[in-house]
Protein backbone atom coordinates (compact mmCIF):
# COMPACT_ATOMS: atom_id res chain seq x y z
CA UNK A 1 0.00 0.00 0.00
CA UNK A 2 2.88 2.37 0.79
CA UNK A 3 4.32 1.80 -2.67
CA UNK A 4 0.97 2.48 -4.31
CA UNK A 5 0.51 5.78 -2.47
CA UNK A 6 4.09 6.68 -3.33
CA UNK A 7 3.24 6.19 -6.99
CA UNK A 8 0.12 8.31 -6.64
CA UNK A 9 2.20 11.08 -5.07
CA UNK A 10 4.68 10.98 -7.95
CA UNK A 11 1.87 11.15 -10.49
CA UNK A 12 0.25 14.09 -8.73
CA UNK A 13 3.52 15.99 -8.64
CA UNK A 14 4.11 15.42 -12.35
CA UNK A 15 0.55 16.39 -13.25
CA UNK A 16 0.72 19.56 -11.17
CA UNK A 17 3.96 20.52 -12.87
CA UNK A 18 2.33 20.02 -16.28
CA UNK A 19 -0.83 22.03 -15.57
CA UNK A 20 -1.18 24.90 -18.03
CA UNK A 21 -2.57 28.32 -17.20
CA UNK A 22 -5.42 28.28 -19.72
CA UNK A 23 -8.94 26.99 -19.12
CA UNK A 24 -9.93 23.58 -20.48
CA UNK A 25 -13.68 23.13 -20.03
CA UNK A 26 -16.05 20.49 -21.29
CA UNK A 27 -14.36 17.38 -19.94
CA UNK A 28 -16.10 14.04 -19.57
CA UNK A 29 -15.15 11.26 -17.19
CA UNK A 30 -12.52 8.64 -17.86
CA UNK A 31 -13.76 5.15 -18.66
CA UNK A 32 -12.58 1.96 -16.99
CA UNK A 33 -12.95 -1.10 -19.21
CA UNK A 34 -12.31 -4.57 -17.79
CA UNK A 35 -11.41 -7.69 -19.82
CA UNK A 36 -14.36 -9.20 -21.65
CA UNK A 37 -13.34 -12.73 -20.63
CA UNK A 38 -11.81 -14.48 -17.62
CA UNK A 39 -10.07 -16.96 -19.91
CA UNK A 40 -6.31 -16.33 -19.46
CA UNK A 41 -5.74 -17.15 -23.14
CA UNK A 42 -8.53 -14.94 -24.50
CA UNK A 43 -7.14 -12.22 -26.84
CA UNK A 44 -7.38 -8.75 -25.34
CA UNK A 45 -6.58 -5.28 -26.73
CA UNK A 46 -6.26 -6.49 -30.33
CA UNK A 47 -4.89 -3.99 -32.84
CA UNK A 48 -3.23 -4.15 -36.24
CA UNK A 49 -0.66 -2.08 -38.15
CA UNK A 50 0.89 -2.08 -41.62
CA UNK A 51 4.23 -3.78 -42.25
CA UNK A 52 5.63 -3.13 -45.70
CA UNK A 53 3.47 -3.27 -48.84
CA UNK A 54 1.66 -6.56 -48.21
CA UNK A 55 1.90 -7.56 -44.55
CA UNK A 56 0.04 -6.77 -41.35
CA UNK A 57 1.17 -6.90 -37.73
CA UNK A 58 -1.38 -8.36 -35.31
CA UNK A 59 -0.84 -7.42 -31.65
CA UNK A 60 -2.81 -8.60 -28.63
CA UNK A 61 -2.43 -9.30 -24.92
CA UNK A 62 -3.24 -12.40 -22.88
CA UNK A 63 -3.15 -13.00 -19.13
CA UNK A 64 -1.59 -16.42 -19.55
CA UNK A 65 1.28 -17.72 -21.64
CA UNK A 66 0.28 -19.06 -25.07
CA UNK A 67 1.79 -19.53 -28.50
CA UNK A 68 1.88 -16.18 -30.33
CA UNK A 69 0.17 -17.59 -33.42
CA UNK A 70 -2.32 -16.08 -35.86
CA UNK A 71 -4.36 -18.06 -38.38
CA UNK A 72 -6.03 -16.15 -41.20
CA UNK A 73 -7.88 -16.46 -44.50
CA UNK A 74 -10.28 -14.73 -46.84
CA UNK A 75 -13.29 -16.81 -45.78
CA UNK A 76 -14.77 -16.75 -42.30
CA UNK A 77 -13.94 -19.95 -40.44
CA UNK A 78 -11.38 -21.07 -43.03
CA UNK A 79 -7.74 -20.22 -42.36
CA UNK A 80 -5.28 -20.99 -45.13
CA UNK A 81 -2.48 -18.96 -43.56
CA UNK A 82 -0.66 -19.22 -40.25
CA UNK A 83 2.20 -17.28 -38.67
CA UNK A 84 4.00 -17.28 -35.33
CA UNK A 85 5.67 -14.27 -33.77
CA UNK A 86 7.07 -13.12 -30.45
CA UNK A 87 5.86 -12.49 -26.91
CA UNK A 88 7.09 -9.90 -24.42
CA UNK A 89 6.05 -8.14 -21.21
CA UNK A 90 7.26 -5.27 -19.05
CA UNK A 91 7.30 -4.07 -15.44
CA UNK A 92 6.66 -0.53 -14.23
CA UNK A 93 7.72 0.75 -10.79
CA UNK A 94 7.67 -2.77 -9.33
CA UNK A 95 3.89 -2.67 -8.81
CA UNK A 96 2.66 -3.31 -12.35
CA UNK A 97 3.39 -6.19 -14.69
CA UNK A 98 1.80 -6.21 -18.11
CA UNK A 99 0.09 -9.19 -19.61
CA UNK A 100 1.75 -11.23 -22.32
CA UNK A 101 2.09 -8.93 -25.33
CA UNK A 102 1.92 -10.98 -28.53
CA UNK A 103 3.22 -9.65 -31.82
CA UNK A 104 2.74 -11.54 -35.12
CA UNK A 105 3.32 -10.42 -38.72
CA UNK A 106 1.15 -12.12 -41.34
CA UNK A 107 1.27 -12.07 -45.13
CA UNK A 108 1.73 -11.63 -48.01
CA UNK A 109 -1.78 -10.24 -48.28
CA UNK A 110 -3.86 -9.12 -51.23
CA UNK A 111 -4.89 -5.44 -51.48
CA UNK A 112 -8.45 -4.30 -50.85
CA UNK A 113 -9.36 -7.66 -49.34
CA UNK A 114 -11.16 -8.69 -46.16
CA UNK A 115 -9.25 -11.20 -44.04
CA UNK A 116 -10.59 -13.16 -41.11
CA UNK A 117 -8.22 -14.09 -38.32
CA UNK A 118 -7.87 -15.64 -34.90
CA UNK A 119 -5.28 -14.72 -32.29
CA UNK A 120 -3.76 -17.73 -30.59
CA UNK A 121 -4.53 -20.34 -33.22
CA UNK A 122 -7.63 -22.04 -34.71
CA UNK A 123 -8.92 -23.13 -31.29
CA UNK A 124 -9.46 -19.52 -30.20
CA UNK A 125 -13.15 -18.80 -29.70
CA UNK A 126 -13.13 -15.25 -31.16
CA UNK A 127 -12.73 -14.38 -34.84
CA UNK A 128 -11.71 -10.91 -35.99
CA UNK A 129 -11.53 -9.37 -39.46
CA UNK A 130 -9.73 -6.54 -41.21
CA UNK A 131 -9.61 -5.02 -44.68
CA UNK A 132 -6.31 -4.29 -46.42
CA UNK A 133 -5.83 -0.91 -48.13
CA UNK A 134 -6.46 -0.75 -51.89
CA UNK A 135 -3.73 -0.63 -54.54
CA UNK A 136 -5.28 2.31 -56.37
CA UNK A 137 -6.82 5.68 -55.61
CA UNK A 138 -8.81 6.78 -53.71
CA UNK A 139 -7.00 6.18 -50.42
CA UNK A 140 -8.85 7.20 -47.25
CA UNK A 141 -7.22 8.13 -43.92
CA UNK A 142 -8.97 8.90 -40.65
CA UNK A 143 -6.94 11.22 -38.40
CA UNK A 144 -7.29 12.05 -34.70
CA UNK A 145 -4.78 12.88 -32.00
CA UNK A 146 -4.66 13.06 -28.20
CA UNK A 147 -7.34 10.44 -27.65
CA UNK A 148 -7.29 9.38 -24.00
CA UNK A 149 -9.99 7.15 -22.51
CA UNK A 150 -12.94 9.46 -21.84
CA UNK A 151 -16.54 9.44 -22.96
CA UNK A 152 -15.51 12.06 -25.54
CA UNK A 153 -12.91 9.57 -26.82
CA UNK A 154 -15.60 6.94 -27.17
CA UNK A 155 -17.75 9.39 -29.12
CA UNK A 156 -14.87 10.23 -31.48
CA UNK A 157 -14.13 6.55 -32.11
CA UNK A 158 -17.78 5.81 -32.81
CA UNK A 159 -17.86 8.60 -35.40
CA UNK A 160 -14.71 7.30 -37.08
CA UNK A 161 -16.10 3.77 -37.19
CA UNK A 162 -19.05 4.98 -39.28
CA UNK A 163 -16.76 6.31 -42.02
CA UNK A 164 -15.26 3.76 -44.40
CA UNK A 165 -11.52 4.40 -44.27
CA UNK A 166 -8.37 2.44 -45.07
CA UNK A 167 -5.88 3.57 -42.41
CA UNK A 168 -6.08 5.44 -39.10
CA UNK A 169 -3.33 7.97 -38.22
CA UNK A 170 -2.75 9.09 -34.63
CA UNK A 171 -0.31 12.01 -34.07
CA UNK A 172 0.67 11.03 -30.50
CA UNK A 173 -0.75 11.00 -26.96
CA UNK A 174 -2.64 7.73 -26.99
CA UNK A 175 -3.90 6.62 -23.56
CA UNK A 176 -2.99 9.47 -21.20
CA UNK A 177 -2.05 6.80 -18.69
CA UNK A 178 0.32 9.27 -17.00
CA UNK A 179 2.24 6.42 -15.32
CA UNK A 180 -0.93 4.54 -14.23
CA UNK A 181 -0.38 1.48 -16.41
CA UNK A 182 -3.88 -0.07 -16.10
CA UNK A 183 -5.11 2.93 -18.13
CA UNK A 184 -3.11 1.53 -21.06
CA UNK A 185 -5.20 -1.63 -20.76
CA UNK A 186 -8.44 0.35 -20.80
CA UNK A 187 -7.21 2.24 -23.86
CA UNK A 188 -6.41 -1.01 -25.68
CA UNK A 189 -9.89 -2.35 -24.98
CA UNK A 190 -11.55 0.93 -25.92
CA UNK A 191 -9.91 1.09 -29.36
CA UNK A 192 -10.03 -2.65 -30.13
CA UNK A 193 -13.33 -2.60 -32.09
CA UNK A 194 -11.79 -0.11 -34.55
CA UNK A 195 -8.09 -0.95 -34.28
CA UNK A 196 -8.65 -4.66 -34.93
CA UNK A 197 -10.37 -3.87 -38.25
CA UNK A 198 -8.16 -1.17 -39.77
CA UNK A 199 -4.42 -0.55 -39.39
CA UNK A 200 -3.55 2.03 -36.74
CA UNK A 201 -0.35 3.95 -37.46
CA UNK A 202 0.72 5.98 -34.44
CA UNK A 203 3.55 8.19 -33.29
CA UNK A 204 4.50 9.22 -29.76
CA UNK A 205 3.58 12.26 -27.71
CA UNK A 206 4.70 13.69 -24.39
CA UNK A 207 2.26 11.47 -22.48
CA UNK A 208 4.04 8.39 -23.82
CA UNK A 209 7.39 9.33 -22.26
CA UNK A 210 6.50 8.05 -18.76
CA UNK A 211 9.99 8.44 -17.33
CA UNK A 212 10.33 8.77 -13.55
CA UNK A 213 13.73 10.02 -12.35
CA UNK A 214 15.59 7.39 -10.28
CA UNK A 215 12.58 5.04 -10.08
CA UNK A 216 11.98 4.35 -13.79
CA UNK A 217 14.64 5.89 -15.96
CA UNK A 218 13.65 4.33 -19.28
CA UNK A 219 11.31 6.36 -21.45
CA UNK A 220 8.48 5.01 -23.65
CA UNK A 221 8.40 1.59 -21.95
CA UNK A 222 4.67 0.97 -22.35
CA UNK A 223 4.47 2.62 -25.76
CA UNK A 224 7.32 0.62 -27.27
CA UNK A 225 6.07 -2.69 -25.90
CA UNK A 226 2.41 -2.20 -26.76
CA UNK A 227 2.58 -0.28 -30.06
CA UNK A 228 5.27 -1.81 -32.26
CA UNK A 229 5.41 0.16 -35.50
CA UNK A 230 7.28 -0.88 -38.71
CA UNK A 231 10.42 1.13 -38.03
CA UNK A 232 12.82 -1.64 -39.06
CA UNK A 233 11.21 -1.88 -42.49
CA UNK A 234 11.71 1.85 -43.09
CA UNK A 235 15.38 1.82 -42.14
CA UNK A 236 14.86 3.50 -38.76
CA UNK A 237 16.62 2.32 -35.62
CA UNK A 238 13.86 3.48 -33.26
CA UNK A 239 10.18 2.75 -32.77
CA UNK A 240 9.75 6.49 -32.15
CA UNK A 241 10.06 7.43 -35.84
CA UNK A 242 9.46 5.58 -39.10
CA UNK A 243 7.68 5.84 -42.44
CA UNK A 244 5.22 3.74 -44.38
CA UNK A 245 3.52 3.65 -47.77
CA UNK A 246 -0.08 3.23 -48.78
CA UNK A 247 -0.57 3.24 -52.53
CA UNK A 248 0.57 6.61 -53.88
CA UNK A 249 1.11 8.06 -50.37
CA UNK A 250 4.33 8.15 -48.32
CA UNK A 251 3.79 8.98 -44.64
CA UNK A 252 6.55 10.15 -42.29
CA UNK A 253 5.84 9.46 -38.61
CA UNK A 254 8.31 11.67 -36.74
CA UNK A 255 9.28 11.65 -33.08
CA UNK A 256 8.88 14.99 -31.31
CA UNK A 257 10.44 13.49 -28.17
CA UNK A 258 13.37 11.73 -29.80
CA UNK A 259 16.59 13.56 -30.70
CA UNK A 260 15.89 15.58 -33.87
CA UNK A 261 18.95 17.84 -34.01
CA UNK A 262 21.07 17.90 -37.20
CA UNK A 263 23.36 14.89 -37.11
CA UNK A 264 21.04 12.88 -34.85
CA UNK A 265 19.88 9.40 -35.86
CA UNK A 266 16.38 10.70 -36.58
CA UNK A 267 17.64 13.60 -38.67
CA UNK A 268 19.93 11.37 -40.74
CA UNK A 269 17.19 8.80 -41.18
CA UNK A 270 14.76 11.49 -42.36
CA UNK A 271 17.25 12.84 -44.90
CA UNK A 272 17.78 9.36 -46.32
CA UNK A 273 14.08 8.49 -46.28
CA UNK A 274 13.08 11.65 -48.14
CA UNK A 275 15.70 11.02 -50.82
CA UNK A 276 14.22 7.57 -51.42
CA UNK A 277 10.74 8.88 -52.27
CA UNK A 278 9.83 8.80 -55.96
CA UNK A 279 7.07 11.34 -56.45
CA UNK A 280 6.19 9.84 -59.84
CA UNK A 281 5.00 6.64 -58.17
CA UNK A 282 4.26 8.22 -54.76
CA UNK A 283 2.83 11.65 -55.57
CA UNK A 284 1.63 12.38 -52.03
CA UNK A 285 3.97 13.07 -49.12
CA UNK A 286 2.56 13.49 -45.59
CA UNK A 287 4.35 14.08 -42.28
CA UNK A 288 3.02 13.49 -38.77
CA UNK A 289 4.45 15.02 -35.56
CA UNK A 290 3.07 15.55 -32.08
CA UNK A 291 4.19 19.01 -30.98
CA UNK A 292 3.03 21.46 -33.70
CA UNK A 293 5.47 23.72 -35.53
CA UNK A 294 2.69 26.22 -36.26
CA UNK A 295 0.12 27.07 -33.63
CA UNK A 296 -1.90 30.21 -32.86
CA UNK A 297 -3.48 28.80 -29.72
CA UNK A 298 -2.26 30.12 -26.38
CA UNK A 299 -1.58 26.52 -25.34
CA UNK A 300 1.89 25.00 -25.70
CA UNK A 301 3.65 28.08 -27.00
CA UNK A 302 7.44 28.19 -27.04
CA UNK A 303 8.12 24.54 -26.23
CA UNK A 304 11.46 23.24 -27.51
CA UNK A 305 9.82 20.17 -29.09
CA UNK A 306 7.99 22.61 -31.36
CA UNK A 307 10.49 25.45 -31.76
CA UNK A 308 13.71 23.46 -31.99
CA UNK A 309 12.30 20.65 -34.11
CA UNK A 310 10.85 23.18 -36.54
CA UNK A 311 14.22 24.93 -36.78
CA UNK A 312 15.98 21.62 -37.35
CA UNK A 313 13.65 19.89 -39.80
CA UNK A 314 11.34 22.39 -41.49
CA UNK A 315 13.69 23.01 -44.42
CA UNK A 316 14.06 19.25 -45.01
CA UNK A 317 10.30 18.89 -45.38
CA UNK A 318 10.01 22.05 -47.47
CA UNK A 319 12.70 21.00 -49.95
CA UNK A 320 11.10 17.58 -50.26
CA UNK A 321 7.78 19.30 -51.06
CA UNK A 322 5.81 17.63 -48.26
CA UNK A 323 2.12 18.23 -48.91
CA UNK A 324 0.65 18.00 -45.41
CA UNK A 325 1.89 18.04 -41.82
CA UNK A 326 -0.42 16.78 -39.06
CA UNK A 327 0.21 17.53 -35.39
CA UNK A 328 -1.49 16.96 -32.05
CA UNK A 329 -0.63 18.26 -28.56
CA UNK A 330 -2.88 21.33 -28.67
CA UNK A 331 -6.39 20.23 -27.75
CA UNK A 332 -8.16 22.08 -30.51
CA UNK A 333 -8.36 22.16 -34.29
CA UNK A 334 -6.48 24.52 -36.59
CA UNK A 335 -5.73 24.51 -40.34
CA UNK A 336 -3.04 26.70 -41.84
CA UNK A 337 -2.32 27.81 -45.37
CA UNK A 338 0.78 26.50 -47.14
CA UNK A 339 3.58 27.82 -44.99
CA UNK A 340 7.37 28.02 -44.80
CA UNK A 341 9.36 29.98 -42.22
CA UNK A 342 6.24 31.58 -40.76
CA UNK A 343 4.97 33.00 -44.05
CA UNK A 344 2.69 31.88 -46.83
CA UNK A 345 4.60 29.87 -49.41
CA UNK A 346 2.76 28.10 -52.21
CA UNK A 347 5.38 25.33 -52.15
CA UNK A 348 5.18 24.74 -48.40
CA UNK A 349 3.09 22.13 -46.57
CA UNK A 350 -0.42 22.67 -45.28
CA UNK A 351 -0.19 22.39 -41.48
CA UNK A 352 -3.13 20.90 -39.57
CA UNK A 353 -3.35 20.61 -35.77
CA UNK A 354 -5.80 17.95 -34.66
CA UNK A 355 -5.10 17.14 -31.01
CA UNK A 356 -8.81 17.06 -30.27
CA UNK A 357 -9.63 13.36 -29.89
CA UNK A 358 -11.26 13.66 -26.47
CA UNK A 359 -8.89 13.31 -23.51
CA UNK A 360 -9.60 14.24 -19.88
CA UNK A 361 -7.58 17.47 -19.94
CA UNK A 362 -10.25 19.10 -22.08
CA UNK A 363 -10.01 21.76 -24.75
CA UNK A 364 -7.55 24.60 -25.32
CA UNK A 365 -10.05 27.39 -25.84
CA UNK A 366 -7.97 30.57 -26.04
CA UNK A 367 -6.47 31.66 -29.35
CA UNK A 368 -4.14 34.55 -30.10
CA UNK A 369 -5.75 37.67 -31.53
CA UNK A 370 -5.87 38.96 -34.15
CA UNK A 371 -5.83 35.76 -36.21
CA UNK A 372 -2.59 35.54 -38.24
CA UNK A 373 -3.12 35.51 -41.99
CA UNK A 374 -1.57 32.05 -42.34
CA UNK A 375 -4.23 30.52 -40.06
CA UNK A 376 -7.31 29.76 -42.15
CA UNK A 377 -9.62 27.95 -39.71
CA UNK A 378 -9.43 27.34 -35.96
CA UNK A 379 -11.90 26.05 -33.40
CA UNK A 380 -11.64 24.55 -29.92
CA UNK A 381 -13.75 21.43 -30.06
CA UNK A 382 -13.39 17.66 -30.06
CA UNK A 383 -13.44 15.84 -33.38
CA UNK A 384 -11.53 13.97 -36.06
CA UNK A 385 -10.53 14.34 -39.70
CA UNK A 386 -11.09 12.64 -43.06
CA UNK A 387 -8.32 12.74 -45.65
CA UNK A 388 -9.14 11.31 -49.08
CA UNK A 389 -6.44 11.09 -51.73
CA UNK A 390 -8.83 11.12 -54.68
CA UNK A 391 -6.13 10.67 -57.30
CA UNK A 392 -2.48 11.50 -57.95
CA UNK A 393 -3.10 15.24 -58.01
CA UNK A 394 -6.06 16.06 -55.76
CA UNK A 395 -7.07 15.30 -52.18
CA UNK A 396 -9.98 16.34 -49.99
CA UNK A 397 -9.65 17.15 -46.28
CA UNK A 398 -12.47 17.75 -43.85
CA UNK A 399 -12.71 18.14 -40.09
CA UNK A 400 -15.66 16.57 -38.32
CA UNK A 401 -16.66 18.15 -35.01
CA UNK A 402 -18.23 16.19 -32.14
CA UNK A 403 -21.40 18.25 -31.78
CA UNK A 404 -23.50 16.79 -28.93
CA UNK A 405 -22.31 13.32 -29.96
CA UNK A 406 -23.18 13.92 -33.60
CA UNK A 407 -20.36 14.18 -36.14
CA UNK A 408 -20.70 17.45 -38.08
CA UNK A 409 -18.47 18.71 -40.89
CA UNK A 410 -17.10 22.12 -39.94
CA UNK A 411 -14.07 22.65 -42.19
CA UNK A 412 -13.06 21.28 -45.57
CA UNK A 413 -10.68 22.02 -48.42
CA UNK A 414 -9.46 20.54 -51.69
CA UNK A 415 -5.68 20.24 -52.02
CA UNK A 416 -3.39 19.82 -55.03
CA UNK A 417 -0.26 17.74 -54.62
CA UNK A 418 2.96 19.75 -54.85
CA UNK A 419 4.32 17.01 -57.09
CA UNK A 420 1.77 18.16 -59.67
CA UNK A 421 2.70 21.85 -59.41
CA UNK A 422 5.38 22.59 -62.00
CA UNK A 423 6.27 25.88 -60.30
CA UNK A 424 7.28 23.98 -57.15
CA UNK A 425 9.62 21.50 -58.79
CA UNK A 426 13.15 21.51 -57.41
From TrEMBL:
Annotated ranges, domain Calcineurin-like phosphoesterase: 140-333
Span of the signal peptide: 1-21
Entry GO MF terms: acid phosphatase activity; metal ion binding
Top class in the EC scheme: hydrolase
Purple acid phosphatase N-terminal domain: residues covered: 43-132
Keywords: Glycoprotein, Hydrolase, Iron, Metal-binding, Signal, Zinc
Occurrences of domain Purple acid phosphatase C-terminal (ranges): 348-407
InterPro entries named in the record: Calcineurin-like_PHP, Metallo-depent_PP-like, MPP_PAP, PAPs-like, PAPs_C, PAPs_N, Purple_acid_Pase-like_N
Gene3D superfamilies for the chain: 3.60.21.10, Purple acid phosphatase-like, N-terminal (2.60.40.380)
Keyword Metal-binding set for record: yes
Catalytic activity: a phosphate monoester + H2O = an alcohol + phosphate
EC number(s) stated in the UniProt entry for this protein: 3.1.3.2
Cofactor: Zn(2+); Fe cation
Similarity comment: family membership: Belongs to the metallophosphoesterase superfamily. Purple acid phosphatase family.
Full protein name: Purple acid phosphatase
Species of origin: Thlaspi arvense
Amino acid sequence: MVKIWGLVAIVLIVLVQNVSSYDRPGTRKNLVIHPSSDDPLSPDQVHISLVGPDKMRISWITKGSAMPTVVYGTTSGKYEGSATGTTSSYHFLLIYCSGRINDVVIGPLKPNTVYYYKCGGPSSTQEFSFKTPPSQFPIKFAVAGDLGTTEWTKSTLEHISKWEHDVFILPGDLSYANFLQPVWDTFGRLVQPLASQRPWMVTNGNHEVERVPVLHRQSFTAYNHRWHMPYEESGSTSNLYYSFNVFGVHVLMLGSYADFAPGSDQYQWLEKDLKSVDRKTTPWLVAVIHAPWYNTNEAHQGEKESVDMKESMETLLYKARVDLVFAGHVHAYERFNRVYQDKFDKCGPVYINIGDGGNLEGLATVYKKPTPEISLFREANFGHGHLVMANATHAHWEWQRNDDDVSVEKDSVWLTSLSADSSCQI
